[in-house]
Amino acid sequence: MARTTPHDPPPSESEPLYRRIAAELLGELRDGTIPPGERLPSERRLAGRLGVSRETVRQSLELLRRDGLVTTDRRGSHATLPGQPVETPASLTFPVGAGAAAPGSVARATVTWEAPRPDHAEALGLAPGRPTLIHRYRYATADGQGLRTAVTSFSAVALAEVEELARYRDRADGTAAAQLRRAYDWMRRAGLTLHHRDAITRIASAPSVRVTRQVHDQYARPLEITDLVVDAHQDALVYEFTLPGRAATPAPENRRSPVRRTADAGSRR
Q1: C-alpha count within 13 angstroms, C-beta hemisphere, residue 269
Q2: pLDDT (tens digit, 9 = 90+) per residue, 53-85?
Q3: Dihedral (C-alpha) 99, 261, 267, 150: value to the nearest 10 degrees?
Q4: Model confidence band, residue 89 (pLDDT cutoffs 50, 70, 90)
Q5: Dmax of the chain from CA atoms?
Q6: How far apart are CA 158 and CA 186, in angstroms?
Q7: Beta strands in 24-69 (DSSP E)
């Protein structure tokens, strides 16, 4: 039978290749790249990303299983290393503006497969009229105030790299609820490093502001663009991020200092 997976590169060290791959995966478990309890990418995807054969990946996963770091069931392998991921959903929510629902509020999210708006298509590098996955989000408080609406368009890169997003194409009829809250986690699990840029502008014809978020990966490829519109009288935008610690900070070297910023949209009018 012909070999369909790539040949493993020759080891440069005495340690077996599968042990080095296991150590690399363990590093991703420990730094939160693969959050605890999350499903690991498929053996085929791991082999492609790491540049080794699927057999090497199997041996590496078996080593981690014996150490109790991953478990396997009918749905695949899952991380079991205890601890919290480096980035929690609260630090980079999808879509931008989504948050905890207040009592009596209504939130709805759906997806469609259609051509995005011209400005979204341009930002994502899509040809005019080319369809893609569009996510629509609407949130309103019980009294009808505090309205937030968001429209997200995903790029061809995001759909090709992130299996969970690609699965929504077949059910993107605009009627069924879409649970894409973990979209950013899915992107990170696919090996993408997220870089996002938010722009906040006033809407002249209404007491609202627009937040436009563009997300790229480590290769500067566009992943998604979101336009969020919020009521500037009733709502507030909260941004949570981290800054690297000072160079003189003692070990561990990856220590980070949490910084929280809150911008009251109503005060910006």
Answers
A1: 15
A2: 989 988 888 888 877 778 776 666 766 655 444
A3: -30
A4: very low
A5: 69
A6: 10
A7: none
Side-chain half-sphere CA neighbours of 115 within 13 A:
8
How far is Cα 250 from Cα 63, in angstroms, rounded to an integer? 33
Question: At CB < 8 A and 24+ separation, what contacts does 22-29 make?
Answer: 22/59, 22/60, 22/61, 22/63, 22/64, 24/50, 25/60, 25/61, 25/64, 26/64, 26/69, 26/81, 29/69, 29/70, 29/79, 29/81
Average pLDDT of the chain, as a whole number? 75
The residues with which 120 forms a beta bridge, in sequence order, are none
The structure's pTM equals 0.57
Q: How many angstroms separate the CA atoms of 154 and 133, rounded?
A: 6
d(CA 41, CA 162): 10
Peptide bond into 82 cis (omega under 30): no
Give SS3 for 267: helix
**Which residues have CB under 8 Å from 18's CB, separation 6+?**
56, 59, 60, 63
Q: How far apart are CA 117 and CA 48, in angstroms?
A: 34
Paired tokens of 183: 């979209």
